[in-house]
Amino acid sequence: MRIVFMGPPGAGKGTQAKIICSGLGIPQISTGEILRNAMDKGTELGREAKSFVESGALVPDSVVIGIVKERIQEPDCEKGYLLDGFPRTLEQADALKKMTGELGKPLDVALNLAVPQDELVQRLLERARKENRPDDTEPVIKSRLQTYEEQTLPLVDYYRKEGILKEVNGLGSLEEITGRIKEALGI
Ligand code: AMP
Fold this sequence. Notes:
Elements: E1 2-6, H1 13-24, E2 28-30, H2 31-41, H3 44-55, H4 61-71, E3 81-84, H5 90-102, E4 109-114, H6 117-130, H7 138-152, H8 154-162, E5 165-169, H9 174-185
Parallel strand pairs: 1-3, 1-4, 2-3, 4-5
């Protein structure tokens, strides 16, 4: 199954994505994680991404599109994959449509995990205390939420029009949400 996993920062996407991927035996492709790893290692990609990630802005489309294009052609993606945090702009969504079309392996489902804004700031601040992410300070959190509203939220409509959107309520316990996601995916 080829899945796009959408939702605002702090919706619990990453955690749920891990559970779903281990159940399905498919890789979780998190562009945020790929970028953070590159930043930790100080690679060219990491140096290019740093200022964008640290300010809560999006890394240029061409950079992330290139990463995903290569990654989904790796042998472990043969059975499917889950994209966590990509696409985040209409340009990325169009590029993904084009590349999956060219590979003859279109997306099966775009799942949107919906959580109200005020809940998100609290969750993100809590996560900032537990993990040590460079982009979980209050001003950066606000900027990431704004970036999401402006650039990524339109993708919900994009995938609705494509006819592959599934919406899931992201409020509740971890187990409840996992249950809803599995039901939406029919697994
Ligand atoms: P995430 O872990 O998905 O919240 O991503 C953390 C940060 O990495 C984002 O705030 C962006 O700066 C960058 N990033 C991750 N995925 C993308 C993407 N698809 N397009 C642009 N920037 C991204």
